[in-house]
Specification:
Layout: E1 7-8, E2 11-12, H1 17-33, E3 43-47, H2 52-65, E4 68-73, H3 86-100, E5 105-109, H4 115-129, E6 132-137, E7 143-145, E8 151-153, E9 163-168, E10 175-180, H5 185-195, H6 198-209, E11 213-223, H7 238-258, E12 263-268, H8 283-297, H9 303-315, E13 329-330, H10 338-347, H11 356-359, H12 362-372
Parallel strand pairs: 3-4, 3-6, 4-5, 6-11, 11-12, 12-13
Antiparallel strand pairs: 1-2, 7-8, 9-10
Helix pairs in contact: 1-2, 1-3, 2-3, 2-9, 5-7, 6-7, 8-10, 8-12
Bound molecules: nicotinamide-adenine-dinucleotide.
Nicotinamide-adenine-dinucleotide binds at residues 48-54, 72-75, 87, 111-113, 138-141, 222-224, 269, 271-272, 274-277.
Length: 395
């Protein structure tokens, strides 16, 4: 069938299998252009492996260091005329390309918060890999079923006072003012349950208990701090409380990880267009401005540039890690550079629907959104018939 983007609000309900494969190939090419990562990880578990930072980390490990990777994600295969989710197509493409390159790549599709999926992964590690030497936790989920069966949802809301911001219609570029009322205490608690460090700790406890973490194993989790412009909705909002909880969890993991001479790191990454980020109120304008300023300066990076640099310059450099006072690995130094932020802050109050295209890189933001779903790639014939039904072997 002919597959076209179908965009509603900040969602695109279709994905293109050939374009998603193109996305993965481009990421692989970037990793290969950076040279071999030596030493690097050998056997890597990626939780949240099918999109954004998790997929990029998987590609950096596999195609940079030749690592075997086991990916966990929650994605939807095609059914009838409905295409699969982008993460399905990208994981299928990654798996095929990794296998063609002689690399081990297997996948588990299911709820990473559940004990069942943790056990499935542990069994697969025991059978196929013995132990893993890196665990990348890169989950971004809207909801979680707690171990006692309670269902909780995460919210993206300010805390204390309302957030006055704007959303942008991806189709028309129309800017709509919006006001978000502050979260109540329960919403803060629930967001921390979904996006905080508790499930990361549970994964590590289960993996240690099963004795499947190798000596010297490292585990990472990703966070975002952003700048004053995004603090009201991000770092000072409900999601920020969850991110603070990652710092707590990393500290709490020091002792258990010491049992395998291992380390737990929170890595602060750049703000980028991913499935999760596209849902954050008000982020579209900030990211459009940021992309514009960073592209003008030649410092713009995508997920794959960030994770590959994280591996080369920090985690596996053998040198002293560039960390902040909280011990977090910083990869957001280019975004937070004074010259970038002062220009973004200058442009921020000037944005209107009339000048959005000219003063920001809204075109680049929209392109990143389309690319994320496999659309807008040169070299892909979107007028050609595409089979939406792409098979992927799952454990
Ligand atoms: P994403 O939406 O691109 O990827 C999320 C992943 O989680 C996908 O693989 C998805 O399948 C998986 N997932 C979601 N719910 C699941 C479940 N219940 N069980 C199994 N898998 C599930 O998100 P992303 O933006 O790459 O976010 C990953 C991490 O990076 C998050 O912690 C996020 O806060 C952080 N981060 C993102 C940005 C950004 O700008 N995008 C910046 C810094 C840090």
């Amino acid at each position: 069938m002919i597959i076209e983007p179908r965009i509603k609000g900040f969602l695109c309900t279709t994905a293109h299998p050939v374009g998603c494969e193109m996305d993965v190939k481009r990421q692989i090419e970037h990793v290969q252009s950076q040279g071999k990562l030596e030493p690097g990880p050998h056997k890597v578990l990626v939780i949240g492996a099918s999109g954004g930072y998790g997929l990029a980390s998987r590609i950096s490990a596999a195609f940079g260091a030749g690592a075997a990777t086991l990916g966990v994600f929650f994605e939807r295969p095609a059914s009838g005329k409905r295409t699969a989710s982008p993460g399905w197509y990208k994981s299928a493409a990654f798996t095929r390309l990794a296998e063609e390159a002689g690399l081990y790549a297997k996948n588990v599709n299911g709820d990473a918060f559940s004990d069942d999926i943790k056990q499935t992964v542990i069994d697969a590690i025991k059978t196929d890999l013995g132990k893993v030497d890196m665990v990348i936790y890169s989950l971004a989920a809207p909801a979680r079923t707690m171990p006692d069966g309670e269902q909780v949802r995460s919210t993206l809301k300010p805390i204390g006072s309302p957030f006055e911001g704007s959303s942008v219609d991806l189709n028309s570029g129309e800017i709509r003012p919006m006001t978000l009322e502050p979260a109540n205490q329960q919403e803060v608690v629930d967001t921390v349950k979904v996006m905080g460090g508790d499930d990361w700790e549970r994964w590590i406890a289960a993996l240690l208990e099963a004795d499947v973490l190798a000596d010297g194993c490292i585990t990472t989790n990703y966070t975002y701090l952003g700048s004053e412009v995004t603090w009201p909705i991000y770092y000072h909002g409900t999601i920020g409380k969850a991110k603070e909880d990652l710092d707590r969890a990393a500290a709490a993991l020091v002792k258990p990880m010491a049992g395998v001479n291992g380390k737990a790191y929170v890595c602060v990454m750049k703000g980028l267009m991913t499935q999760a980020a596209s849902a954050i109120p008000g982020m579209a304008i900030y990211l459009s401005l940021l992309f514009r300023v960073m592209k003008d300066q030649g410092t713009h990076e995508g997920c794959i540039e960030q994770t590959t640099r994280l591996f080369h310059e920090q985690l596996f450099s053998g040198g002293v890690l560039r960390v902040d006072d909280e011990g977090r690995i910083r990869m957001d130094e280019l975004e937070l550079d004074d010259s970038v932020q002062s220009r973004v802050k200058e442009l921020w109050p000037q944005v209107t629907a009339g000048n959005l295209e000219s003063i920001s890189d809204f075109a680049g933001y929209r392109e990143a959104f389309l690319n994320m779903h496999g659309f807008g790639f040169e070299g892909v014939d979107y007028a050609a018939d595409a089979d939406p039904d792409i098979d992927m072997k799952l454990i």
